[in-house]
Amino acid sequence: MSGVSEAERVWWKEAVVYQVYPKSFRDSDGDGVGDLRGLVDRVDYLDDLGVDAVWLNPVYDSPQVDNGYDISDYRSIADGYGDMADWERLRDELHDRDMRLIMDLVVNHTSDQHEWFQRSRREEGEYADYYHWVEGSPEEPPNDWQSVFGGPAWSYDEERGAWYLHLFDEAQPDLNWTNPDVREAVYDMMRWWLDRGIDGFRMDVINMISKAEGYPDGGGEHFMNGPRVHEYVGEMVDEVLADEEILTVGETPGASVADARRYVGEDGLSMVFQFEHVTFDHDEHKWDARDPDLVEFKQILAKWQTGLAEDGWNSLYLNNHDQPRMVSRFGNDDEYRRKSAELLGTLTHTLCGTPFVYQGEELGMTNAPFETREDLRDVEALNYVDATIEDPDTAAESYADVRDAVEAIGRDNARTPMQWSGDEHAGFTDGEPWIDVNPNYTEVNVERAREDPDSVFHYYRDLIALRDRDLVVYGDFELLYPDHPSLFAYTRTLEVDGDDGESEGATERALVVLNFDDEPTTFEAPADVTVDGLELALANDDAPAVPGRSFELGPWEARVYLTPDDSDGSDATDRAEPTSADR
Ligand code: GLC
User: Is the CATH number 3.40.50.970 carried by domain 11-110+180-366?
Assistant: First the structure.
């Protein structure tokens, strides 16, 4: 029935991935920190939502300087999260429900507590060159590179008497990918996890693994999408991933569409997380955020949609554990919290690509207040606050002067505990949570959302179900009205075969219209857009069953019109089903 070829069809294009930040998801033992048993306990919730896969942020052994992105042992589970038996239970509970498990792969750097680094600083045998070491005066770093978390990207190690590179915190030394032993050790570790039955990797800052030779002065151009990065990623795919039907998503800050085409089309990753649409509202510095401009936002997303249409695939996300909550950033988290959360979810589920839902997004969770510096936990935010206050060149004298910036863009916004109920600490823990719960938990929580048929949660279930349609997964994207200041509207189109596979086919269409504004607005179908035959599939307010050529939308109203599905569900039976071989 469908015109999608078998070669094109793959499970991770049809999937919706749910991202779990385990530290803040559900605590089972009352120590205030989320854990694997807590997550296992909520697998039915994810199943009920309808997602197909879980991406788990790092749960490996770690001193937790950067909440687990500083790994001290890749092959064991951090004490606070449980043990390998808990992890296996999680994998099995997910697989029993036909959900996949995607693990975080953090191989640009390790923790300074990793055995490799400990041996490297002692210059033990093959480990001596596992990291980027440069000798020189302890007074002067090898170059002017700055760490993503602020301050110089080099620290002097007294023990070895040399500088080592860390593009993130000083406790996160960068691995030396020019060393083939390092690459083999990483591939070995990846095979070890694949042998344990995982279904994919999310690859942390994978486009930063290659640094310019000789470490020239300058900025990201010397270590983002660096000179040998495609060689390394391609090699990793050939050596480890080529025969696996797994999902691989590379986190690639600063990557252009052309870069992404290479990571996906040539190197063989399934997709990347691009950053353009979550950085365009920063001024020079991440902490100088402006209100995002819709026209610019549309232009960026449309460029990625069309740029990867032929030989690539998009990931679709508006928030994750590093970004503020989408409804606070792109929506209206006050008067129109529900509607704008639903509208933004409509966008990420009806563009072409694989949607990623970040925990709590399906409730419309918002940014949180951080009244004092003591409320913050994120190393990046704390560095920024302290450095800004100490810097005599800034006007900031106390936390009060930087609070707005932290509350607008800081990563802790995403990391407040998942809001399960109106009980104390939002039902996240019986103890003291490691980070405060957002005070709006009494109103915004899973228990209430499940009881309320009009909640964001129920809307998300409908959105996820919409993706049973090939049209919604594979249809071609076309932006309408690129310059309209409040409407984000587009069509999706898919040619389908006749019923017998031979007779003349038909064209299936989708029309998605979103009003990104507190004021009503009018949509008028452009002359070349067919609305005949379209029927309402989903809306976040009352809407007529057929569109007409022109209609009014209220504040933050979202409508999805589709060619009706007359395939009696046969469409769904063609889908890429999980096979035991994939596992
Ligand atoms: C990625 C992670 C982020 C982490 C950083 C260093 O950007 O998403 O949370 O701090 O890499 O590993």
Answer: no
